[in-house]
Amino acid sequence: MSLIIFILAGFLLFFMFQLLGRARQTFAQKKLWHRSAGSLLPLAELILWVAYAFWGIHLLFGNHIYFDLVVGIMVVLVIVAIAWFVFRDLFAGVLLKAEKALEPGQTIKTPFAEGKIKHLGSRSIELINDSGELVKIPYSRLSNELFILPPDNEDSLPHHLEIILQNNQNPDELRKRIRENLIAMPWVLLPVPDITVIKGKDGVLKLHVMFYTHIRSHAAIVEEKLKIIAGQY
After folding, report:
1. Which of 12, 35, 45, 69 is the most buried (most CB within 10 A)?
2. For the residues of 37-73, what is the DSSP string, one character each?
3. CB 90 within 8 A of CB 125
4. What are 35-47's pLDDT values in tens digits?
5. CATH of region 100-142
6. What pTM does this model have?
7. Domain covering 153-229, topology
8. CA angle, 119 as apex, 117 and 122 as ends, to 5°?
């Protein structure tokens, strides 16, 4: 009888989370709750399944002589599983960053995505691809994979561009916006682009932009995008 109750409770718990999952999708599409609230559902599901497992052990083996041993084994298994899930990406990230000397601004190619490194977190790496999308990859997915690092700085080509400011443009704001976009562009290499405000002989303010790319065709793409940002198209 205890086994039947345990199985029925498992089915009820499973179908309950199926319904909650569909409700979460519906609420998310209709924007009836904040995204962070929906992210709590998987955590609640994990906690309830672990509680269900321990309740089942008590229900099935509560009067058994080996009850304490079974509970101890379950506790160890849960701790090992959680530790593996939490720390595998952390350890893989430490080894990967130490071996590859990764840093923000580098462009890398992986089997999962290609783009410029935006952030090196403790458990994952964030890339910005050619479409401007943010790609987050756990370090454990990269630990045994081949990925290509960019060329050294001495192999990069410097490029210069002058952007004439319009009368209503704020030099500091435009300089900041161009710098942020340059850092995010996958074609631009290190070192960090240099942007200075200069005044021409005719008194017109200009932005002098210096950046580095691997090939000249990438520089043409960057210049076109910068002119769009500066409102020259």
Report:
1. 45
2. HHHHHHHHHHHHHHHHHHHHHHHHHTTSTTHHHHHHH
3. no
4. 555 566 777 777 8
5. 2.30.30
6. 0.45
7. Alpha-Beta Plaits (3.30.70)
8. 125
